[in-house]
């Protein structure tokens, strides 16, 4: 059984959500049948969206530190509890010798398997601007419906002012209207393309047909760690 290394802290609550989903996805009857995990909850990694927008320091140096700590600690592969951070993988991979399982790849594979042709994308403005999901979806002939530019801040606000601020009373009425509008545009389901968004769905009781990349990553990591079939597991 392989040891999973989790690059965490982006944010801490999303990291715990990923750990929980790994545990829930593991077919274990006792402690010893669960998968070993090493977690580096590095909350000092700079904000990824600010870096992409040129408004803050690059997270790459701290991400490299975390990746190396996980590798030296005995992790066999790494998963990242942040969608936006995957934009910086080209700077990380040359500095480590273990693979990284991509949350983008496993999420898009799930969309393809479920047969959706039009999906909404709920992600940070940083992730949206990189085209990480849009390009992968387009390569699979799937249309991506992102929020209109003037409404993208609603998703960012829920992530930063809601989940990251641990604000249980955050007003989600505008987000609910946004989801309805994207459905009218043809969204059959929504990719929860920021690891805080699945947490928001749970915290605020949001309703809809959702593709949870965190859950898909957890299930793929379990399959890979247990050395089961890896045909649908894509390694960056």
From TrEMBL:
Pfam family, one: Asp_Glu_race
Keywords (A to Z) from UniProt: Isomerase
Record-given protein name: Aspartate racemase
SUPFAM superfamilies linked: Aspartate/glutamate racemase
Protein family membership: Belongs to the aspartate/glutamate racemases family.
NCBIfam families the record matches: asp_race
InterPro entries in UniProt: Asp/Glu/hydantoin_racemase, Asp/Glu_race, Asp/Glu_racemase_AS_1, Asp_race
GO molecular function terms listed in the Swiss-Prot or TrEMBL record: amino-acid racemase activity
PANTHER family cross-referenced by the UniProt entry: ASPARTATE-GLUTAMATE RACEMASE FAMILY, GLUTAMATE RACEMASE
Organism: Selenomonas ruminantium
Superkingdom of this protein's organism: Bacteria
């Amino acid at each position: 059984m392989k040891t999973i290394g989790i690059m965490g802290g982006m944010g801490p609550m999303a990291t715990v959500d990923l750990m929980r989903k790994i545990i829930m996805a593991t077919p274990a009857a006792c402690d010893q049948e669960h998968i070993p995990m090493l977690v580096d909850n590095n909350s000092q990694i700079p904000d990824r969206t600010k870096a992409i927008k040129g408004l803050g320091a690059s997270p790459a140096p701290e991400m490299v530190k975390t990746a190396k700590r996980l590798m030296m600690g005995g992790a066999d592969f790494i998963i990242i509890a942040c969608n936006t951070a995957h934009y910086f993988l080209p700077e990380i991979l040359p500095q480590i010798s273990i693979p990284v399982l991509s949350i983008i790849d496993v999420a898009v594979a799930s969309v393809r398997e479920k047969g959706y042709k039009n999906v909404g994308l709920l992600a940070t403005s940083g992730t949206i601007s990189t085209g990480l999901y849009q390009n992968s979806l387009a390569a699979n002939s799937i249309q991506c419906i992102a929020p209109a530019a003037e409404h993208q801040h609603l998703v960012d606000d829920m992530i930063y002012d809601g989940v990251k601020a641990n604000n249980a009373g955050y007003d989600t009425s505008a987000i609910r209207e946004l989801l309805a509008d994207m459905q009218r545009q043809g969204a059959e389901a929504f990719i929860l393309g920021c690891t805080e968004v699945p947490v928001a769905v749970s915290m605020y009781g949001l309703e809809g047909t959702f593709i949870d990349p965190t859950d898909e990553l957890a299930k793929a990591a379990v399959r890979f760690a247990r050395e089961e079939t890896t045909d649908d597991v894509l390694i960056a």
